[in-house]
Design a protein that fits this description.
This protein is mostly beta strands and 351 residues long. It contains no helices and 20 strands. Strands 1, 4, 5, 7, 8 and 10 form a 6-stranded antiparallel β-sheet that branches. A 5-stranded antiparallel β-sheet has the order 2-3-11-6-9, with no helix packed on it. Strands 13, 14, 16, 17 and 19 form a 5-stranded antiparallel β-sheet that branches.
């Protein structure tokens, strides 16, 4: 057969981690770190005799993972039904892996992400998730990683469309001749099934008598389940398999911590996606003997940055809070000092 059938190849850019990043040290191209804290660690291994693997070690952060660069997002085109496959392995049973999918419209607007959670064991296994996007969704940005403490190995991320292949099959069928039945004298004459050319009304009175004994047991949430099916996103949003998508309202707390050493050159903290955070602040404590200077920066894409407000001085033994007033999707804190001095930087937020 000439040509490749649509839907049989991976559409995730560098989803097999074969290409190493030219800008990031020891990290796959088209992917960046997300969440985690100073105790989290990302290790990228490329062995010529084995499948490339990205290992994430997490101890205290709520989640730690990787996310596609905006330019590497999965372009859907006219096909809205997709299958996502990810190959995982944990360092112990019941490691919690997650998948976040950010729908992006043709105008560039990003909706609230779809979230999925999976239990991973000691053996390498693949998870599958069917995605049904709306007509206004132009692309999807994928994020995956580990929830809670533990170690997770990610080997490959695959996505392909589920549109049917256009194939023509010609099947020859034998002709069947149908002979009409003119009349039926009694019901007893029909001994074996026959094919009727047209329905023949039979006026036969039928009386049915039956007794029904029903035993209705008490329902329990563990043994009994109810699935709610919906045809649109309002009033109940459901997945393609009929599971209701429920949003839990309320405030949650997020915190991360970095210990750094400031010098005369300007450095920055880890880039964070703050789009899902209600509000957040940086707190900087100077443990050294020289003054340091800090300033918040904001970015719409994680590449182009602008300074927020003015630099703040952090004297020796002092604590300074930096709270950005403007909003862009990505945020970080830059720092420098007249001489080497140790800083501890917190990020605390409500989401």
């Amino acid at each position: 057969m000439k040509g490749r059938l649509k839907g049989t190849f991976n559409r995730v850019i560098n989803g097999d981690f074969l290409t190493k990043s030219k800008t990031q040290n020891d990290f796959p191209e088209a992917w960046v770190q997300i969440c985690g804290n100073n105790k989290s660690n990302w290790s990228f291994k490329q062995n010529p005799w084995k499948m490339p693997v990205l290992e994430i070690y997490n101890t205290t952060a709520i989640r730690a993972g990787i996310i596609q660069l905006p330019a590497a997002s999965l372009s859907l085109g006219p096909v809205k039904e997709w299958l996502i496959k990810i190959f995982f392995k944990g360092d112990r049973p019941k490691i919690q892996a997650y998948l976040r999918i950010y729908p992006i419209s043709s105008k560039g607007d990003v909706s609230k992400p779809w979230e999925y959670c999976f239990g991973i064991g000691l053996e390498q296994e693949q998870i599958k998730q069917v995605i049904s996007a709306g007509p206004d969704v132009d692309s999807l940005r994928l994020e995956t990683g580990i929830l809670g403490p533990g170690s997770l190995s990610i080997y490959k991320i695959i996505a392909y469309s589920l549109s049917p292949n256009r194939m023509t099959r010609r099947v020859k069928q034998a002709k069947q001749e149908v002979y009409p039945i003119s009349s039926i004298q009694t019901i007893g004459e029909i001994i074996k099934p026959i094919q009727l050319a047209a329905p023949i009304p039979l006026k036969i009175p039928v009386n049915v008598q039956a007794s029904v004994n029903a035993d209705v047991r008490n329902l329990t949430p563990i043994r009994d389940k109810v699935q709610v099916f919906g045809s649109s996103q309002v009033p109940i949003a459901t997945s393609v398999c009929g599971r209701a998508q429920v949003e839990i309202s309320g405030h949650g707390f997020y915190e991360s911590l970095e210990d750094v050493t400031a010098s005369e050159s300007v450095s920055s903290t880890i880039t964070r996606d703050v789009s899902a955070l209600y509000r957040y602040s940086f707190a900087v404590c100077n443990y050294g003997s020289h003054s340091a200077y800090v300033q918040a920066e904001l970015s719409p894409d994680g590449i182009h940055w602008m300074a927020e407000d003015h630099q703040q001085e952090v004297g020796p033994g002092k604590l300074v809070v930096v709270s950005p007033e403007k909003f862009l999707r990505y945020s970080r804190l830059t720092y420098r000092a007249d001489d080497l001095t140790k800083l501890r930087i917190w990020v605390q937020a409500q989401n």
